[in-house]
Amino acid sequence: MPVNRKTPFKNFFRKNFRRLEGFIFYLKSFLSPRQFIYLACFLVGVSSALAVIVLKTFAHWVYVFAQYMDSILHLPYSNSTLPIIGIVLTAFVVKKALDGFIEKGTSQIMYAVAKKSGIMPKKQMYAQIITSSLTVGMGGSAGLESPITITGAAFGSNFAQNYRLSYKDRTLLLACGVAAGIAAAFNAPIAGVLFAIEVVLMDVSITAFIPIMISSATGAIVSAILLKDEILFTFSKQLNFDYHNLPFYILLGVVSGFVSINYARTFRNIEHHFEKSRLKPIRKALYGAFILAILIFFFPTLFGEGYESIKMLANTNPQQILENTVLQNFKDNIWILLLFVGATMFIKVYATSITIGSGGNGGNFAPSLFVGSYLGFVVATFFNQVGFKLPVINFTMVGMAGILSGLFHAPLTAIFLIAEITSGYSLMVPLMVVSSISFAISKRYEPYSFDIKNLAAKGDVFTDDRDRNILSGITPYNLIQTNIQTLKLSNSLEELIQKLSNYNQSVFPVVNDKNELIGMVNFEEIRPYLFNNYKVKFTPLQDIMRPPKEQVNYDETADSIMDKFDRSQEDFLPVLKNNQVIGLLSKTAILEAYRVRLKNMIIE
């Protein structure tokens, strides 16, 4: 009989994990709730940081391997081949091991907070790591930060579920995982805190800052200890701000806003193209991967996250970005360099959307920094060629904040992220100027962050409107009164009086033989008829029936329904499904659900 050598290791791991789990339960029994939350924040921070280290290290060594192969072949053949392998493998893993589906993008974190009480599936603790490492690690033109934040959020959510914590603590730990992930990825703890609050939570009390800061600081420390400097995206050069350059920073902010809008709309269009495609997953992956391979062949800096190319632009010899390209013989021509960088900046969104849409997994955080740095480089270099003296590295750095702010609608995260990765705050003024202008322009034409626009339109995620945030977590379908009495035109007032006497119902839908709504009868409006025997006997129901002022679809969102209650000034509205009446919805029921949810959302 063959011996299963994996079983002892598996049993050893499972046994020790249960011991650790039991020890944490033991600690919970004598720690106060707040003390246990602090411990949980630390553990979630460590877990998220370790996930970051695995992803970043794998992606870095694949990049090093690809560059080594290029130095042998002298053309970016390996750069073009590896992404095809990575995307196809990702599609295969999703199909065979993840039930054929994996949720992508940070929008699912907001959806979990708004609609699922902060509950995220257990598989997200490993699914994002596996799929994104295959896609981005093998050269797919996307970022690892979105999978990192989802993984961190899943760690926090499932830790809270495992130790039976409340909704508010579960949501808090979810945000802690997100903060730790961003902090570990960039060694930027402040940016991690701000991203969790600015993008994920929206509504948060001041007391939530401490747990989030603990997780963020933990993630940054673990990352700084275990990750090498060449893997971390950091800059050590001292950058200074010259107020004479302020008009150019304002211009950069304006351009960043419009570039962000173009990026968001182009990404959505290409994503929808792949969603509508009838190709099977593997064929779709091959179709997209081959297009991506062609793009990477001509624009090798589209390979992977692209952080190495940003570092090239920010050094004193940006011409090296043209090495191993078809334009390498023209690398001393500044206008060729400028044209190449500008073209790559606009093509990046196509590469990223194809990577993700065709079946790969990744995010848009790194691509936004990529596009921003290229934009800043193009603006500064162009004006330098026409006679000005602008610091190219400053504009390269500040441009990243502009696109990040415009794309994710997170200006504070953008400001402090760039400030932290540049190891100083000398550029704080231009960072504030560029980020705020880009955010304002993007917000004007794109009210929602592009990552959550589709969900926001459905009322499924948080917005900056607190009332709508709370209403978004209410499911009206559960509040519908389905056991109701209806009327038909053939009914008399005497029959209506009998229903009023026998049922606790003051509003009656009037329906036809197909149960379709044709009117409403309200007890308060017909009271004068009911105390006059003559009118009761001779008034047809049609005379006292009135058309419904508003009607509700069974799958409508709570905030949309509340708008209808406000417009109609009604206390009850009929609910329809497939044009048939299925019940009544009370305004009082929604307000009570609002009150309960508001109470649960208060983070103590």
UniProtKB/TrEMBL annotation:
Molecular-function GO terms, alphabetical: chloride channel activity
GO cellular component: chloride channel complex
Membrane-spanning residues: 36-55, 75-94, 172-197, 204-226, 246-264, 285-303, 334-351, 363-383, 395-418
Keyword Transmembrane helix belongs to the record: yes
Pfam family name, one: CBS
Predominant subcellular localization, coarse grouping: membrane
Topological category with respect to the lipid bilayer: Multi-pass membrane protein
Keyword vocabulary terms for this entry: CBS domain, Chloride, Chloride channel, Ion channel, Ion transport, Membrane, Transmembrane, Transmembrane helix, Transport
Localisation per UniProt entry: Membrane
InterPro entries: CBS_dom, CBS_dom_sf, Cl-channel_core, ClC, ClC-type_chloride_channel
Residues annotated as domain CBS: 480-536, 545-604
PANTHER family: CHLORIDE CHANNEL PROTEIN CLC-E
Record-given protein name: Chloride channel protein
